[in-house]
Amino acid sequence: MTIGYIFLAIAAVAVVLLGSSVRVITQFERGVVFRFGQLRSEIRGPGLALIVPFVDRLQKVNMQIITQPVPAQDGITRDNVTVRVDAVLYYRVVDPGRVAVDVQDYGSAILQVAQASLRSIIGKSELDDLLSNREKLNQGLELMIDNPAVGWGVHIDRVEIKDVALPESMKRSMSRQAEAERERRSRVIIAEGELQASQKLAEAAEVMAEHPAALQLRLLQTVVEVAAEKNSTLVLPFPVELLRFLERATPPDTSSRALSTTESSASASNGKDPDMLDRIWTRT
């Protein structure tokens, strides 16, 4: 009976030791083993990992990409503008052994480096670069953070500047500047349009001077366009060119006869001679 209890005790101790020597490592983790406080060179992969009870200590390191928001940092740009900039940082562990040994809290260390690098980037950049040239700034910021992180076994995948907060006075100044720029562009476009229109009008005037009938066709087209609006009043200009056209189209003898008749009528009316008036009207 005593022997049975002994075997049961030994079996229980074996089960306890076996349970304490088996560890489960998930797919996104790696295991770092310390034997009597000394780092073992072998990195345990996912699955079951056996360690020596009371001798080895297994530390799991997450190998997933970590998203770390960088708190907003106040700074003054190179062109003396006060801004407030925040960013987001993506990084992952590439060397579990160095992460477990070289740095106590690599997440906090990466965050502090990111904040200092962000303030440095703000001081070296101008406001226009922060607003419109962020790709270049992101690359520079990533390089600044990655330099110390490589020594800790961490790789920086990506750094993005999220938002740039400006003072209200600067926002108003920028809005006035943008409005003035749009006004300048509109005036330039209007001036260019007037120049092109004047050139086309000059060409049209030359064509109408060579072909007077073109002016009549244009006049008729204008009448058609105005008449289509169903207006009650129609103002029709009578160009001088039309008079000249009619003058050239009238035969010379008809015009001189009409002129003589008019002069005779005027003389008769001034002399008040009824017989002369009768002769004039008979001749006409």
UniProtKB/TrEMBL annotation:
Spans of biased composition, class Low complexity? 254-269
Note the SMART domains from the entry: PHB
Q: Name one Pfam family in it.
A: Band_7
Q: Which GO terms describe its cellular component?
A: plasma membrane; side of membrane
Q: Where is the Band domain?
A: 20-178
Top-level taxon of the source organism: Bacteria
User: Which InterPro entries does the record associate with it?
Assistant: Band-7_stomatin-like, Band_7, Band_7/SPFH_dom_sf, Stomatin_HflK_fam
Q: Where is this region: Disordered?
A: 252-284
Q: Where is the composition biased (Basic and acidic residues)?
A: 272-284
Family, as annotated: Belongs to the band 7/mec-2 family.
Name of the protein: Band 7 protein
Lineage of the organism: Bacteria, Bacillati, Actinomycetota, Actinomycetes, Nakamurellales
